[in-house]
Write a structure and sequence with these properties.
The chain has about 475 residues and is mainly alpha-helical. It folds into two domains: about 10-365, no CATH class; about 380-480, no CATH class. Helix content is about 65%, strand content about 5%. It contains 20 helices and four strands. It has helices at about 1-30, 35, 40-55, 80-135, 145-165, 170-180, 185-200, 205-230, 235-245, 250, 265-280, 290-305, 310-320, 320-330, 345-365, 380-390, 400-405, 415-430, 435-440, 455-460, and strands at about 395, 445-450, 465-470, 475-480.
């Protein structure tokens, strides 16, 4: 009876800490609304979701672009797009902001819940803080946020399965179907299932046990792969993340796909320095297979800035047992105990205060939210175009594509680099191709950022003149183009 009571108390402590941390993350994320909502893809996803809801179909070809109309297209994040459209149409930008904050809060809270039993409250808070720090750089209201709780749940279940010399529970299999319809990062889950399966085989003591482990993990991996195919695109959807990763030239033009450096991803550098300090000071050692997983995560984060959050959320789980082994001899005793938080009254007060703060964030921070002005929303410039009555095809900056679709215009290019392809994006990005594009596509007006080098070319191009300019966008019209 005493053991059961002790276990119940420990569970309550973990959940209380996780809820408190999650509520804090929620409040901070809501307060960062200017950054969270500042993405052109959010406009695109809302438009996709609206189209799906209106037509009761999942598109398999382009329905928005003027330059690639009818081209094959995999709307692999269709379910997240529907969710964003429903949130925006019923709750406005505040609903989108609240959902984004909730997804990150659940992910960080779940990480806290998983690390607290092995690392104690201080260790769990450190893991949560460092993970949150690596999420900041890519903290945008986009479908990837919906996948972050799934990342933590998936990897945590695999770590527990390896600790118990078992396979992950099969209730994760339908979770993979949900993941595959939300975001392309489902491939991350499948790859790490294969890596954990390899670890189970490699660390088996006998050939017989290795074969048995390989068979059990193969069944789970096979079921997960089949679950990932249950999307509107079937096998094409399963292979989509692989095809996207091979689009080097097109991805190089997108900030989040660029390599990490001190200038564009300082939190990652700081995180690595702290990890190096911990390793050299306390002598953390990982088994070979787990070390390979960690090195793969580290490579992904440095190769593309968008993978930093995967490193931050997954690494504490991979290091969970190795760090727990050194804590009793290296950490102060207070770090491993709950102190005043262990008292029911203190714990309950902390949870109530955290939930109250989150409620205030919802009713204050998520009400009457107005997006912008931001660099993806050329509202005034488009108003000038509409006031003039300009008609005809547009050549737009990459960052304005989503907003044009949101406003009912067919853009020349938008955030779907996978659909446009390497050749198209490379030609669009080449400044010396600007005049040829204007002629070939019979462009009637252009809209670029003031700092865009194309703006300078348009200012000096014969047959074109400025219609409007502000700090966000510059509009040029072809001379003699007739208003509607």
């Amino acid at each position: 009876m005493f053991a059961a009571d002790k276990s119940t108390a420990a569970t309550q402590l973990r959940w209380a800490l996780a809820i408190t941390v999650g509520a804090f993350v929620f409040c901070v994320t809501v307060a960062m609304k200017a950054q969270v909502l500042a993405t052109q893809d959010l406009y695109l996803h809302i438009s996709i979701g609206r189209w799906i809801l209106a037509n009761r179909l999942i598109p398999d070809h382009d329905i928005f672009s003027a330059s690639m109309s009818g081209a094959p297209w995999v709307a692999h994040e269709w379910l997240a797009s529907v969710g964003l459209a429903l949130l925006y149409d019923h709750l406005g930008w505040g609903g989108v902001l609240g959902a984004a904050a909730l997804m990150l809060a659940v992910a960080i809270g779940a990480l806290t819940l998983e690390t607290a039993p092995r690392w104690g409250p201080i260790g769990a808070l450190c893991a949560a803080g460092l993970a949150w720090g690596l999420c900041i750089n890519h903290l945008l209201a986009r479908p990837h946020l919906a996948s972050l709780p799934l990342v933590v749940i998936w990897i945590a279940a695999h770590v527990r399965a390896r600790r118990d010399n078992a396979v992950p529970p099969f209730y994760l299999v339908p979770l993979m179907t949900l993941w595959a319809n939300l975001h392309g990062s489902f491939m991350f889950g499948l790859v790490f299932t294969a890596l954990f399966a390899a670890e189970a085989v490699f660390e088996s003591e006998t050939i017989y046990r290795a074969c048995a482990a390989g068979l059990r993990w193969s069944v789970f991996l096979g079921a997960s792969v089949l679950a990932a195919i249950v999307t509107p695109y079937g096998l094409t959807g399963l292979l989509f993340p692989i095809r996207l990763m091979t689009m080097g030239a097109a991805l190089d033009t997108v900030h989040e796909w660029q390599a990490s450096s001190l200038s564009n991803n300082a939190p990652l550098i700081l995180w690595c320095l702290l990890l190096l300090f911990l390793t050299l000071w306390h002598g953390v050692r990982l088994p070979l297979c787990r070390l390979i997983m960690f090195m793969l995560l580290l490579y992904m984060a440095f190769a593309h800035t968008r993978y930093s959050e995967l490193l931050g959320l997954t690494t504490p789980l991979l290091l969970l047992d190795a760090v727990a082994d050194i804590l009793p001899r290296s950490a102060p005793a207070v770090a491993l105990h709950w102190g005043a938080f262990g008292r029911p009254a203190v714990r309950l007060s902390a949870v109530c205060a955290a939930l109250f703060a989150a409620s205030i964030a919802v009713f204050v921070g998520c009400r009457d939210v107005v997006r912008g002005p931001d660099r993806f929303t050329p509202t005034a410039a488009l108003a000038a175009v509409e006031a003039h009555g300009s008609n005809g095809p547009v050549l737009n900056a990459y960052n304005f594509g989503g907003y044009l679709i949101f406003r009912g215009y067919a853009p020349f290019v938008d955030g779907r680099v996978d659909m446009y392809g390497n050749a198209f994006i490379s030609r669009y990005s080449a400044l010396d191709q600007l005049t040829e594009l204007l002629k070939q596509y019979h462009i009637a007006w252009t809209i670029f950022e003031p700092s865009n080098p194309r703006t300078v070319v348009m200012d000096n191009l014969s047959g074109w003149s400025r219609l409007y300019a502000d700090d966000t966008a510059v509009v040029h019209l072809r001379d003699g183009s007739a208003p509607r």
